[in-house]
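Shift notes (night). Ran Splicing factor 3B subunit 1 while the centrifuge was going.
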Amino acid sequence: MGTDECDKYVGLMEDPSKGYDSSIYGESTEEIRQLNINDPKSSYQNVMNVDSSTANGLIDESYDPMHKDSSIRSRENSYKQQRFQRMLSPERADPFAKSSAGNDVRTYTDIMRETQLDREKARTARMAARSKYESEKSEKHDHNDRDSMPTDSASNADAAYADTPMASDPASTPTPSRWTETPMYGENSLKKSSRWDRTPSLDPSQTPGATPLGYTGSETPLTPSLTQQQAFMRHRLQREIDERNKPLTDEELDQILPSDGFEIVPVPHDYNPVRKQTPLTSATPLFSIPEQHETAEFEVPVDATPAVLADVEIKLEDRQFFAKLFDNVAEDDLSAEEATERRIMTLLLKIKNGTPPIRRQALRTITEKARDYGPGPLFNQILPLMMQSTLEDQERHLMVKVIDRILYKLQDQVRPYLHKILVVMEPLLIDEDYYARVEGREVISNLAKAAGLATMIGTMRPDIDHPDEYVRNTTARAFAVVASALGIPSLIHFLKAVCSSKKSWQARHTGIKIVQQIAILMGCGILPHLKQLVETVAHGLQDEQSKVRIITALSLAALAEASSPYGIEAFDIVLKPLWRGITEHKGKALAAYLKAVGLIIPLMDPHHANYYTREMMVILVCEFSTPDEEMKKIVLKVVKQCIATEGVEPQYICQEILPEFFNKFWIVRNALDRRNYNLLVDTTVEMANKVGGPQILSRLVQDLKDPSEPFRKMVVEAVDGVITNCGVEGVDQRLEEMLIDGILYAFQELSVDDKVIINTFGTLLNALGHKAKPYLPQIAGLIRWRLSTQSPMNRQQAADLVVKVSSAMKVCEEEQMLGHLGLFLYEYLGEEYPEVLGSILAALRSIVCVVGMQRMTPPIKDLLPRLTPILKNRHEKVQENVIELIGKIADRGGDLVSPKEWDRICFDLIEMMRATKKSIRRATVNTFGYIARTIGPHDILCTLLNNLKVQERHMRICTTISIAIVAETCLPYSVLPAIMNEYRVPDINIQSGVLKALCFIFEYIGEMAKDYIYAITPLLQDALMDRDVVHRQTAAWTCKHLALGVHGMNCEDALIHLLNFVWPNIFETSPHLTQAVFDAIDGFRVALGPVIIFQYVIQGLFHPARRVREIYWRIYNNLYIGHQDALVAAFPPIYGANCRTGNSIHQCVELCYTL
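Came back to this:
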């Protein structure tokens, strides 16, 4: 055991304040350097990586201030970045393998022995540190006693000062701190020792005067005279001087001196330059400045890129990890292992940076050859790549997909690499991205199914009592995923053993946390095992360690929340310990116990729930004024749960809870905390559900005029929730006026674009109904005034408010007021700001829907021509609202506009199909249907069919959907002849578009397809025989929708004819075509019955070719799942070995009698 390790423990015992951060940075300089060494955003890294190729050494020309770091590490906090500190462990032995493990492979015994040895080292270090601390403490105490004895010659002042308790006296200062030390009188007094003031003692084994080597982590800094910043500045000045005084080159001399009349004298062979670079003696030891001739990091010649990676983007950080791919080495000179490694690295780089086609091909290749490559070479390349600090979200997603597919192929061969994979995948379980957590759970679940429960437990067992809390946390979450994959009963006995561990409290803590994570992950799936899980963790409430008691209470809370509203019987054994803990504990422990009891109370019957709520509410009310944010969160959640419980009386809530609740929680500070903001609003709404809306609204209405805008927003959101759930019954006129006045004030003082207040305005007016009529003139005047202001935000908010209040104005019969607002908005259709224009169009649409087309002012014939130029606006909000407004006009008042105007609008709508937003494209195709119903399908169809010739795929798809909607609106007979005639054009895009349109048409018209099936069969027959894969795929989809539409319509002859053309495509390899063919066969199964399909299937079930059998058995499986009972009549009689006896295994005698 080293001296440094003992000194570390002694330093922590001497001064308890040393364990706390003295600044906002929690890590030491060395830890910060290690964390930021690979972070491109870190200023520390920018200082260390000085670009030596810069002309003057002062400006980094590669610095881009607009560059945004998209790596995963850039958004992780220090806790999540601990994943980079974990090491990928070597290969482990597989206990289930047939061959015995070699001497170089670690077994479970070796790992447990190493873990035990590390634990003993740590325990010995702590014991040595404690003994050293006690000896130094006794010596210091004796020395202080001798110095504090007064002498006869001491003055009265000295004697008085000697009686003053000293900072170093542990008896007189109960909480020593380095900031509150009392300076001691006299030169011989002892000053409190510090690690940074000590001079490293000389080792007797070293030679005196020898130059010491570079210490890492030594107690005295190597460069006490210069700070890092000073050394760096001195180096920059030195570089600038060297740059200015460097010798002139021949080109520079030619520019200065004339070329004629001078001769270049050769340098003597014995000449040695006197001037040379003098290294800084006091340079900072944390980094070194590279020389000019050194190769920069990631510097690889561009022409060194191999030919197989010609179409793959090569990033700078990839050149370091995939450096072997850029070596000019022939493949014949490589060994088999090296060649395999290069192939894997090539595939991974294609998957990581390649285009979608290249990525799919590489992913398919690495999956198919996973067993040929072997698990070792694969995971030795994939897992370190996953640990790269520059990895981005998309790249990580692709690597996780690779691991998932490889696991499916390798199955139990992954056992020796199980811990490696877990080290990489466990951090995904605590990632902030939801989809990353889902991917991590899926991979670990597949890993557990492939490796088995015994291997998973044996691999993760050493991490259960790991000294690092980060490792224990991720291990607990991984165990929860294993339990959800393999079942809780398979893991319950192991959990009981871990939670009852006597050797380590960390093991008990992790075991109980596993139960908590199981409850969070599986939800109500724990109900069959609830009693066992509660009994497993119940003893943790009396554990000697406070952390174990806290996690036990949190686990019980998670179990209660997951099992709600059932399972109160399982919690009988923990009610008394929890109740006792509420009265005994404080701080975090009290918060955990309160959360557990608060979530168990909703499971009780009403009588007991009322009793426990009354008893616990005394403690909760006392905690209303706590400054701890976590305690606030738990108190609010418990109060919400208790109030919603049946049996709690509204009178008790009004008298005991509401006054203190509003005094302590409805303050400005809670409005600024986003964690408690929503929980406070939800709790208030829950109280309103119990005691009634007027009780809560009367307390909230005064705060609607609070000076703080965040607080006003929180109050308005609470008012919205209360009115939505409880309505305005019981609200008197005075409270109505105060609510309207308060929300008007909040709306006028709105300084940001926030929809909460506007939505609440609409909710209140719609809830008031006819009673809102007296307030509408004031609101309409406010809207008109804000529409005429110069602020774009004010105009936008006024238009948004019109959308919310238009229905209330209709209820109050204020159509004239709506007409005036319509005229006012009509005048502002020339708005220059697109966000404001979009809101104005939405307001006009709401007025049109409420007032109607006939009474709309301005008239529709004047309004629509003003909307046509706005269709050319490319802002998404404007496009969506103007198309929806035109669609409403076409749907309800199309005859009010001339057909020529509709034709002009159709040409402009074609461009809207190029929009990237799906809602815009959907509104466009619906508008085509409305216009076609107004002016007829022929002109619209001509425009749409011409649009099938364009090259943009999504525009052609939108066109086909529009054709289908026109066919549905105007009946198929008006559309089918034109598009069937268009199929004769020998253009692949047009023919594919026609088939896609037919697919959508038969999907939309349903049973009407029986009138057109015989007419469309020859066209589908030709498409199913086409050489183009896309033609056959689209025709198969069309056959599916056609078969489902004519089910039971006596069209079996045409369907069997089409089935004969669909069936040969079952052997195609294209995944999209295969899916379309199988879906078409499922459609025929529904329309024709399973017996006919079975007659096709039985021919190939026992074919000698494996590939043929696989396809036929896949079809049979779908057939069996869909019509299991109907297949009984189709099964042939299967006789025994002796056919003459007439005995059969499956003869179906009763069925034969019936037939």
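The mean pLDDT is 79. The first strand starts at residue 1134 and ends at 1135.
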